[in-house]
Amino acid sequence: MEKKKYDNDFKVMLIDLLESGRTAKELSDEYNINSGIIRRWKRGFKAKSGDFSKKRELSAEELELKALKKEICCNHRLKTYLSNS
Fold it and tell me: Given its phi and psi angles, is residue 51 left (phi above 0), alpha (psi -120 to 50 degrees) or beta?
């Protein structure tokens, strides 16, 4: 089954309907979308300060953690490569 992709305007419209008092279940039934997805969109919308289009900025700690994870992955690949040589 192919995954549907919804544009940002549609997501914002559903968030507006939620905030006007409609429930995720009502919208789920009306638009044939899982209510969990609608609630996830709402959480994401709040986390991004009302803008689906912008990515959340990572903190300095998150950036460092991301770099360290990348380094560990590279080191693991190198170790695997060298042990197979």
Answer: beta
